[in-house]
Amino acid sequence: MGAKLSKNPVSYGFPFLEDKSTIEVMKETHTFVILRGLPGSGKSTVAKQIAEKYPSISGVASADHWKITPLPKESETDSSRYHELDQQIKECLGDKMIVVVDDTHHNKERLDYLFDLAKEKDYIVFIFDIRPANRDLGSLVKCSHWNYTMEQLKLMEPELQKKVVPYYFGWFLVRQDAEKMRKYAMGFLDELSKNETFGEEFLKYVKSDSKENFKLEEYFQKKPSVLHCSTKFCDYGAAPNSESYAGSKIVDDSLSKCFVLKVSALFITPRTLGARVELDKDQQLLWPKDEEAVGSGDQVNLPHSSRSHITLACAPGVQAVQTGLDLLDILKAEKAEAQHHPKVVLEQGECCCLGEGRWIMNLPNSINVKTFFSGFYAKKKSTAE
């Protein structure tokens, strides 16, 4: 199903194959790579390049190996056809850091199944459309060993020309750094819960049936399973400008690339617990321009990408999208020099109150977290971000 490797294999420019810093972090990150394209497009070539780059930690599950013939019109969810391939994928998910799935992937239901497998095992998903330059359908017919006709490839082509748009794009924290942020956040909550000044002020604005027995850690039980800093909410292509963002060159060039994000503050409100992220110039290129007006409506102007954050926890009934709105509200209050409110000194730094239960702790030493830029593709089963 793939083109043969030549002595000088084609370079597709993927960061996880060519960017040195990305390659080093990939070696310690659980990633699920889906290769997508017509028969003969070069998917097997890319799969082999990945296996050679990461020889001991990668596993390639190939439909070609199991002689699963791509059918131009089919329901790829037929379990009898994919049983052995899926068994291999599941074994790789339990044993390998990097799992590569090599198939045409022109069926939406099949992709949804794979996205769910990756989410269940907490793997970051990369999906790549393999479309070699200067190669028409006629040359693909010659490259593929499946003996397809031009007409058969034409039946598959329309679905593969459609961009797979995720629920959202963003930077996804590698497991080690996600755990570090979770521990830091829990330490922050633990210190605040023991501080009487904070407790008296915060409880004025909390909706709770039992304020006498209020416990901060229990109140913020709703935590995201995947720590990330979102850039663009897409709703699988339904959100405004999502398809143009997904198809932009900067997004294409950044997929699977490692970025180190700077966490400069922790903040808490009666609704959310979050971490402020300050983006550098390169990272700001991925921040969509249409996000600038979100949360505005007053006279306080904030810098580009001020909303960038990591949601750490939410109060009952609160959606994670509220975290970014709370951060904008806090930054505007800071900039407007809100009237004096209590401050408490914690081991991690000074935590300042901005009224209405809003508190922020600007970190004396920022926290750097390693991330990969990609999309969240699994179907949402709840209202969480």
Descriptors:
385 residues; alpha+beta; eight-stranded antiparallel sheet; four-stranded parallel sheet
Question: Could you explain the architecture of this structure?
Answer:
The chain is elongated and about 75 Å long. It has 385 residues and is an alpha+beta fold. The chain starts with 14 loop residues before the first helix and ends in a 9-residue tail after the last strand. It contains 14 helices and twelve strands. Strands 5, 6, 7, 8, 9, 10, 11 and 12 form an eight-stranded antiparallel β-sheet that branches. A four-stranded parallel β-sheet has the order 2-3-1-4, with helices on both faces.
Topology readout:
Blueprint: H1 15-18, H2 20-26, E1 31-36, H3 43-53, E2 58-62, H4 79-95, E3 98-102, H5 108-120, E4 124-129, H6 137-143, H7 150-161, E5 168-173, H8 175-193, H9 196-202, H10 216-219, E6 228-233, H11 242-246, H12 249-254, E7 258-268, E8 272-278, H13 281-284, E9 309-314, H14 322-335, E10 343-346, E11 349-353, E12 359-376
Parallel strand pairs: 1-3, 1-4, 2-3
Antiparallel strand pairs: 5-6, 5-12, 7-8, 7-12, 8-9, 10-11, 11-12
In short:
The chain is about 35% helix and about 20% strand. The protein is built from 14 helices and 12 strands.
